[in-house]
Design a protein that fits this description.
Length: about 180
């Protein structure tokens, strides 16, 4: 059960709540854009849970286990980041894990419309707040799907994904 945060992270009894936030997504695979948002969130909050969506209908390049493993490796330097997986409603995952807010990266205006709709629905359903972080301009054009597409046609995606992801991408695409 989420404790009601009243003021400056204090609960009704006045003791401090853990400010635990979630960064949800597909992360197929994790990019430097994701990592930028995760690391900045880790600097602001007590605990950051990166929640990998188990999406049964969407075709993905990496399995959920592989995505979780790669995320674990590239975030291992942050002591307050944990990788989890979830399916169903994000608000249910938040309630089950005592999460007070969702952190989303905003790349461009094109992200905004969908994200605002989701944020408002999540607030209406469960009073879960969504906080938007503007993308690092270095990565504003970057998405997992674009990385996969470029890598699939032999383009160079180094500098856009962590090195371990780069080699996993090369391996996986060579198998196709
Ligand atoms: P995608 O497949 O588009 O890369 P995900 O579903 O894995 O996206 O993204 C999870 C979250 O990460 C979303 O909030 C998304 O806006 C954010 N995100 C993805 N790429 C970037 C980026 N380059 N800069 C900032 N935020 C990003």
């Amino acid at each position: 059960m989420i404790r009601q945060v009243l003021d400056h992270g204090k609960d009704q009894e006045g003791s401090r709540c853990v400010q635990r936030v979630v960064c949800p997504g597909s992360f197929d695979p994790v990019t430097n854009g994701h990592l930028d948002i995760i690391s900045r969130a880790a600097g602001l909050y007590d605990e950051v849970i990166v929640a990998v969506l188990i999406n049964v209908t969407k075709h993905s390049l990496f399995t959920v286990d592989e995505r979780v493993e790669m995320l674990g490796q590239v975030t291992s330097r942050y002591g307050n980041v944990r990788i989890e997986r979830f399916h169903g409603l994000l608000v249910d995952f938040c309630a089950a894990n005592g999460i007070t807010a969702v952190i989303k990266g905003l790349r461009a205006v094109s992200d905004f419309e969908y994200e605002m709709q989701m944020a408002q629905m999540n607030y209406r359903m469960a009073k879960v707040e969504t906080l938007f972080m503007t993308t690092n301009p270095l990565y504003s054009f970057l998405s997992s799907s674009l990385v996969k597409e470029i890598a699939r046609y032999g383009g160079d995606v180094s500098g856009l994904v962590p090195d371990i992801v780069l080699s996993r991408l090369r391996e996986r695409l060579a198998e196709e």
